[in-house]
Amino acid sequence: MGLQTVSIILGSKEKDTFIKYLLNDIKALEYMIEQGMIEEGKRRIGAEQELCLVDNTWRPAPIILDTLSKIKDKHFTTELAKFNLEINLDPLEFRGACLTTLEQDLKEKITVANEVLSEYNAKAILTGILPTIRHKDLDISNITPLDRYYALAEGLSKLKGGKFEFHISGTDELITTHDTVMFESCNTSYQLHYQVSVEEFVDLYNWAQLVSGPVLAASTNSPLLLGKRLWRETRIALFQQSIDIRQAKDHLRERSSRVSFGNKWIYESIVEAFKEDIVRFETLLMNDLKTNSMKMLEEGKVPTLDALLVHNSTIYKWNRPCYGIYKGKPHFRIENRYLASGPTIIDQVANAAFWFGLMAGLPDEYKNVQKKFEFDEAKTNFLKAARDGLDNSFVWFNNIRISAKELILKEMLPIAREGLRKENVDEKDINRFLNIIEERVESGQTGSQWMLESYSSLRKTGTRDQALVATTAAIYNRQQEMTPIHKWSPANINEAGNFLNYYLHIDQIMTTDIVTVHENDLIDLVANIMDWKQVKDVPVENEEGELVGLMTAGLLVNYLCKTSKEKKQNSRIKDVMIKNPVSVSPETSIRDALNTMIEEKTSCLTVVQDKRLVGVVTDRHFVKVSAKLLRDLE
Predict the structure, then answer these.
(1) What is the 3-state secondary structure (H, E, C) of 267-287?
(2) Are 335 and 307 part of one and the same domain?
(3) Whole-angstrom Cα distance, residue 160 to residue 255?
(4) Which of 141, 164, 262, 342 has the most CB atoms around it within 10 Å of its CB?
(5) Residue 498 above 90 pLDDT?
(6) What is the pLDDT of residue 249?
């Protein structure tokens, strides 16, 4: 959201005022189109780079304001969370060595960022979702303390009227809720901009929608969230759910998410897209500095359309239409928002070359796509690419079903090559960057595939947290080598560093796959569970799912030895269990947890959050930690 002076709309009077300015902007935009005021004959490209800031333990480092105060460069700016950084690159003429220039610009600016971050023992990493991000990192205290972010968070929470709900299924499953929009800060992307003329907007915007599936499939890079293996591009589902104000009670009413692929093709002009968003989405924020766009036109000035830009900035289409002014001239752009940050600078520029080439290479037979292809099929292709990456097939023209790899290699890449040539991009750049896409797709090793294979392999030899830290460290280490993702070697467990990187808090070693019993269950049940699962401690929950007790093997044996046969048959767990067992929070340090176990003379700690069991730690866990420590000290 480029505009800084925004605030939440508090009442009907403010809303009415803002809508008047919004409608005035639409009227002004239609006038500018009619009068031929929108820039024509220019093709520019641009990019926005989002990054994660991590500390020396590979965890989020909430130091953005300190960092920016030392960088002092207008190209660097904030994002929603204190541990994110955004770099806005200058527009480039789409010709010649523009792709190499884009690559070099990114390298230089990320180098500047890392030089400053090194003063804080931190570094910037390119990754769609940081593998090591935790629930506690998403606390509202980590929101960047600027009015526009507070306004956005407050406005969405107000419209939601309750907790944001998350349910994403892949190899694993994530089911959780959160009080604020901070889950959105997990996402970091590499956003591309492509300038278009008035006349070509409809064809190019619809084409951008159609090719989103193949482009995304070739570039997925976000399969992990909170230690869960989810979609190949989990950002797509996460972003939608992190700011989705719809509720379950709305199931009979068709409503759109503020993050979406859209619902239909565009038929008339860019104004149609803006009008649709005004119709479908409630105004959320307002700008403080209001301008009368029609009056500005009467005075011979180019209007900034502030109200329209504010409203557009709160609607996150994966292909977003944009209005802007560059060197005094208004123009239109299509913004590609679905590409993840990373895995390397060269991979990102290759993704950009692929998309820019496709946009420039739109074949004549694919124009007027709205008359030739079902929108729902394009949308389905996009969602399938997000879920499964290259491991799926797409519906294409004439209802042909084609594998993602075949469509990209045999049709999309040739179109992209021809498009780059049509724009007179250097042949050296064309071959260098599109060959990366070709080799990546042929090998099948996207960022997501590499991450999933590395993480799954690491889990066989280390804990979940150790695997996440090693994966994150490996991502950064290989980024420094400047080799594209399809040439990366797997992550190594030693890249996690020493035990302090992943053995700081109890949630890093606790067991989360827990067998529990109900307080009203029979004693026989817990006895058999202990035998079947070979465990000596079983937590006890009540009907509300709250932890209320603990059954131990010693307690069970003692009870069975001293109790008559008749009484045993009807005994309930609540009559025998340890009530109010020794518990700690997930953030408890391992040292404090160990001290608690010693002081309380217990071999089992329950880990509780909001009265609910989230993990269990036994003396066996500390034996494993000790063994790892001894190996590190060798």
Answers:
(1) CCCHHHHHHHHHHHCCCCEEE
(2) yes
(3) 13
(4) 342
(5) no
(6) 53
3-state helix, strand, coil in the chain (%, to 5): 50, 20, 30
Residue 204 lies in a domain: yes
Pairing outcome for strands 224-225 and 228-229:
antiparallel
- Domain CATH for 230: 3.30.590
Residues 305-321 have pLDDT tens digits of 999 999 998 899 999 99
Please give the pLDDT value at position 148.
87
Q: How far is CA 546 from the centre of its chain?
A: 31
Tell me the CA distances in angstroms from 336 to 37, 99, 189, 208, 438, one per residue in order: 24, 16, 10, 8, 21
Residue whose pair of structure tokens reads 């060595």 in the numeric block: 97
Q: Does some domain include residue 34?
A: yes
Q: Residue 626 to residues 79, 279, 508, 606: CA-CA distances in angstroms?
A: 40, 61, 14, 20
Report the CATH number at residue 533. 3.10.580.10
Q: How far is CA 382 from CA 262, 339, 394, in A?
A: 11, 12, 9
- Residue 334 sits in the same domain as residue 188: yes
Q: Which amino acid is at 81?
A: A
The number of distinct structural domains making up the chain is 3
Where does 58-97 have alpha helices with state H? 64-71
Q: Residues 176, 303: one domain?
A: yes
Question: Beta partners for 538?
Answer: 551
Give the pair of three-digit tokens for residue 375.
């929108």
Residue 121 in any domain: the answer is no
Q: What is the pTM of this model?
A: 0.89
For residue 630, is it left (φ>0), alpha (ψ between -120 and 50) or beta? Answer: alpha
Angle at 215 between CA 211 and CA 221, to 5 degrees: 150
Query: What single string gives the DSSP state of each residue in 371-405?
Result: GTS-HHHHHHHHHHHHHHTTSSEEEEGGGEEEEHH
